[in-house]
Specification:
The complex is a heterotrimer of chains A (about 290), B (about 375) and C (about 260). With about 290 residues, chain A is an all-alpha fold. Chain A has 13 helices and two strands; from the N terminus they run H-H-E-E-H-H-H-H-H-H-H-H-H-H-H. Helix content of chain A is about 75%, strand content about 0%. Chain B folds into two domains: about 220 residues, Rossmann fold (3-Layer(aba) Sandwich), CATH 3.40.50; about 130 residues, Beta Barrel (OB fold (Dihydrolipoamide Acetyltransferase, E2P)), CATH 2.40.50.100. Helices cover about 25% and strands about 35% of the residues of chain B. The chains are: A mainly alpha (about 290), B alpha+beta (about 375), C mainly alpha (about 260). The structure holds adenosine-5'-triphosphate (ATP) and magnesium ion.
């Protein structure tokens, strides 16, 4: 006779998760909680932190045009580079997914996967040699008779170019696995019913990839909202985005309360925007998914 | 006219040959079943007709028009996939309407035709469901409606019944056949089930290793297989290898041909086509009778013992190990339908069959 | 025609991703005193120089040490947890899975700064210094590594057909033998992939370590960034080439055993 197991049995097997759970609680949840608390404290140049319960740090952030601008710039650059990654990534991911399985396909996938795991520092420094005024791009253009300073280093467009290149593999790999999961017979069915390739993509394939598109966009957006190396190295000291600002407030200004508030604004914005996007997309595919 | 002609169609994947050389004409309004063992190239052939697989060589025409180079979207064929390939994010009605939208029909017309098509497959009440909310048989019917609603020139079905249970398969088989006849649709139906092929098709095409092994009306192919492979695939239980010899000094009952089996005994044949050299006597289990007394007339008779008996409802199959070294299968009516009493394992019997029973077929 | 269009786009986009890396490898052999184009000649001096600089050489070994420790930590914590999450029958498994995966979702900058503030508070309270110490970095990197192990090992476990184990048991194998001869070999690719991604993601981490490095104890990524702040010579190229080679080799070797792109 089936009956619900006694409580002891229901807990059976939970022991091995405890160390990992404690590790994450101590290493991530507790620091985040403390940081949240710190963001309500007050800063004092002498003693650094004065215990308080105030919203001053958040108010200061939203009242200072400079910080508002930094946040706006970060969101704009992230949204734009995510969109570009999506547009460039879709055809590549689809091409790879439909590439006949074999050694050639594995090699192509490695070309995406290896850069993804090379690290931001190296990949961004590689872009520095391309974008700087004595770099590869300038030399190439000079050969074509176009000379003069490029002005890409220390500019928003330079940051965007490098950011898109750094983030593209994340988008492609995510989208690729989604495309792999879509049966080719669906495309063939659409084709035999008279749909052209583009119509098939628009009406059949893309709606089915929506969850994957969402995952890819959330990943790229989060990474670019929190990008550090690219804005610092390509953008230079006068180009401000959120992540370097958090770093600067916490380690250089030693203003932990304000830095904590900044970090939470950054995390809140990232989460808020991605959750909003997720809900908007989910409303469209919930009907046939579950 | 929308007859389909395959002219020496071939498909190679690198070194593997999926379809070696297929020549075949499917008449307008005819239902042809492509039958054959796994891997013989049925799906590949069908997909080449549908336009999903480019030909390595050869030509496919529909109503005299060469379609070999046309993309699927311009062939006006209805394709029913083995896994149905319903669009999961569209409702039943949206799935069926898709092909009509591609043909840029007006809203009202699409609506009436979708409703009509769904009525025809008895799914009118399910129009707003999503595919995952349907049973296998219902999904199958949606796939059928979606393929038919565009009024294709040719209907292509790739093992459409293989995911259904036995009774549903029976039902859908009849339904497909009735629809096809009502619409007069030129149809190619891929299956690896000979019963399915025989009961639905006007003509049966048996494939083997990327070639047509034998083609013809089901009754003809069934009763006159031309090769040991065809006979075996069509369920002939006894394939006895040997060679023909002329035998002028037959028994009293008349002259006949002799068949020297590889196992030893010489069998009596009458009225068989003559095949030179090594060949195979294909003898259906039904053609073999088991006796305990004397053989009747000029029957071939081999004595032996029952080695195995399997029950099949209306019939029992006995595997008889003969003293001559041949193992024969006899299919006799079960006691419940007027057959003899069940014989015990090891019982001594005489396996008998008439000299004109069975067919001689080429060895390969 | 359609295929050709896709192939063309793919070539351009993949070029956009890969070409900068090819260029930096090439330029690491230039004899130009600053990174510039075209080459004035070729030399191996930058490699010698990179090796002689304690920031880079020390950074490499520090990174190696941290990443190896973090990977071992993540495997030790992550494998039993994954087994329990997939096979166990206790309430809240979904929540716990989300919790263990969370360090991957929390932005590294936020996680790193929180850990930094936390370490300093702990130090204020207890006098134990963690920030700027190896232990502090290993904890931070263990948090980078753990989600990868959990993700890939649970995937391997759920993807595994459990009737295979039942088959082994019904053939007379005791539980321990079933585990060692059936379960372990079947989830092994997941463990290898988990360990690899844990190691590499820890090795290349920049943002989380930023806050936690101390004087004389920098990771390779931070040494690179610091150097770039004041210098722009092919030494960078030499270090980058070394890292590219290192990661590529690791991936190539592992990719013979596991389908790495499935990890995402
Ligand atoms: N894309 C492909 N690449 C390489 N070989 C293929 C490909 N498609 C089919 N083949 C090979 O061609 C042969 C015929 O395959 P096909 O799918 O047509 O067989 P089938 O008769 O439909 O078999 P089944 O009854 O199992 O569906 C097989 O040997 C198969 O391995
Ligand atoms: Mg097939």
């Amino acid at each position: 006779m089936p009956s619900s197991p006694p409580p002891a049995a229901r807990l059976r097997g939970s022991g091995p998760v405890l160390p990992a759970v404690l590790f994450v609680l101590a290493g991530m949840i507790a620091p985040l909680a403390l940081m949240l608390r710190t963001s309500f404290d007050r800063f004092d140049p002498e003693t650094l932190i004065v215990s308080a319960l105030t919203l001053d740090n958040y108010l200061r952030f939203f009242e200072t045009p400079f910080f508002r601008e930094v946040l706006g710039r970060t969101i704009a650059i992230s949204a734009l580079s995510t969109a570009i990654c999506l547009i460039l990534g879709l055809p590549v991911a689809y091409y790879l997914a439909r590439f006949p399985t074999g050694a050639a396909k594995s090699r192509l996938l490695m070309l995406i996967l290896v850069p993804l795991l090379i690290g931001n520092a190296v990949r961004t420094s590689a872009w520095m040699l391309i974008l700087n005024d004595h770099g590869v791009l300038a030399a190439g253009l000079a050969r074509l008779g176009i000379s003069g300073p490029l002005g890409l280093m220390y500019s928003a467009s330079g940051v965007m170019i490098a950011l898109v290149s750094v983030l593209l593999p994340f988008m492609i790999i995510t989208l690729n696995s989604v495309f792999e999961g879509i049966e080719t017979t669906l495309e063939e069915a659409a084709g035999s019913l008279g749909a052209s390739h583009l119509t098939t993509m628009r009406r059949v394939v893309l709606p089915l990839t929506l969850p994957g598109v969402l995952a890819g966009c959330v990943l790229c957006f989060t990474l670019s909202m929190n990008a550090y190396a690219t804005p610092v190295l390509i953008g230079g000291p006068k180009f401000h985005m959120m992540a370097p600002t958090v770093y600067q407030q916490i380690t250089e200004a030693m203003n932990w309360p304000f830095g904590s508030a900044l970090a939470f604004v950054l995390m809140g914005m990232t989460l808020g925007l991605t959750v909003g996007l997720t809900l908007a997309v989910q409303r469209r595919y919930r009907r046939w998914m579950a | 006219m929308s007859d389909v002609v395959l002219d020496r169609v071939a498909k190679h994947y690198g070194a593997t040959v999926a379809v070696e050389s297929m020549s075949l004409r499917i008449g307008s309004g005819e239902l042809v079943a492509l039958l054959g063992p796994s891997g013989c190239g049925k799906t590949t052939t069908l997909r080449m007709v549908g336009g999903f697989v480019p030909l390595s060589s050869g030509l496919i025409t529909v109503g005299g028009r060469d379609v070999s180079a046309l993309p699927p979207s311009r062939r006006n064929m209805g394709f029913v996939f083995q896994n149905y390939a319903l669009f999961p994010h569209m409702t039943v009605a949206q799935n069926v309407a898709f092909g009509l939208e591609m043909r840029k029909l007006g809203r009202a017309e699409i609506e009436t035709r979708v409703t009509g098509a769904l009525e025809r497959v008895r799914l009118g009440a399910f129009r707003d469901r999503y595919p995952r909310q349907l049973s296998g048989g219902q999904q199958q019917r949606v796939a059928l409606a979606r393929a038919l609603v565009v009024e294709p020139d040719v209907l292509l079905l790739d093992e459409p019944l293989s995911n259904l249970d036995a009774s549903l398969r029976q039902e859908m088989k009849i339904e497909i056949r009735q629809l096809q006849q009502a619409l007069g649709l030129t149809t190619i139906f891929v299956t690896h089930d000979q019963d399915e092929a025989m009961s639905t098709a006007d003509r049966m095409v048996l494939m083997h290793r990327g070639r047509v092994e034998q083609a013809g009306p089901p009754a003809e192919v069934y009763s006159r297989p031309r090769s040991a492979f065809a006979a075996g695939f069509l369920g002939v239980a006894n394939l006895v290898p040997g060679r023909m010899t002329r035998m002028d000094t037959g028994s009293d009952t008349g002259r006949g041909d002799g068949f020297v089996t590889r196992a030893g005994p010489v069998l009596r044949l009458r009225g068989h086509r003559s095949i030179q050299g090594d060949c195979v006597l294909a003898l259906r289990g039904e053609e073999v009778t088991l006796r305990t007394g004397q053989p009747a007339g000029d029957e071939n008779a081999l004595s032996g013992r029952v080695a195995l008996a399997t029950f099949h409802g209306v019939a029992i199959e006995y595997h008889v190990e003969t003293e001559a070294g041949l193992r024969l299968v006899a299919r006799v009516p079960a006691p419940g339908v007027g057959g003899p009493e069940v014989m015990a394992h090891g019982a001594e019997v005489l396996a008998c069959w008439a000299p004109d029973a069975g067919v001689l077929v080429a060895e390969t | 025609m359609i295929r050709f269009t896709y192939a063309a786009i793919a070539t351009i986009v993949i070029g956009f991703i890969v070409l900068p890396l090819v260029l930096i490898v090439w330029m690491s052999f230039f004899s130009n005193p600053i990174l510039s184009f075209p080459p004035e000649g070729y030399t191996l001096d930058w490699y010698r120089r990179a090796w002689s600089m304690s920031d880079f050489r020390g950074g490499f070994f520090t990174s190696l040490q941290i990443s190896l420790c973090a990977t071992v930590l993540a495997l030790v914590l992550g494998i039993p947890a994954s087994m329990a999450l997939v096979r166990g029958s206790f309430p809240g498994r979904d929540t716990i899975t989300t919790l263990l995966m969370a360090p991957m979702l929390v932005p590294a900058i936020v996680g790193g700064s929180a850990l930094f503030v936390f370490y300093l508070e702990v130090e204020l309270l207890s006098g134990v210094q963690v920030a700027g110490r190896l232990a502090g970095l290993i904890i931070a990197h263990g948090l980078i590594a753990l989600p990868w192990v959990v993700k890939l090992v649970t995937t391997a476990l759920t993807g595994m057909n459990q009737s295979v184990e039942e088959a082994a048991a019904s053939l007379g194998a005791p539980a321990r033998v079933v585990f060692l001869r059936i379960t372990v070999p079947m989830i092994w690719p997941g463990v290898v992939a988990g360990g690899l991604f844990a190691f590499v993601n820890s090795f290349i981490d920049l943002e989380k370590s930023l806050f936690l490095v101390g004087p004389g104890r920098t990771t390779l990524q931070i040494a690179l960034i610091n150097y770039l702040e004041w210098n722009f010579d092919p030494t960078i190229g030499a270090v980058a080439t070394a890292q590219i080679t290192f990661v590529t080799l690791l991936l190539l070797v592992t990719s013979r055993y596991v389908k790495l792109h499935r990890a995402f």
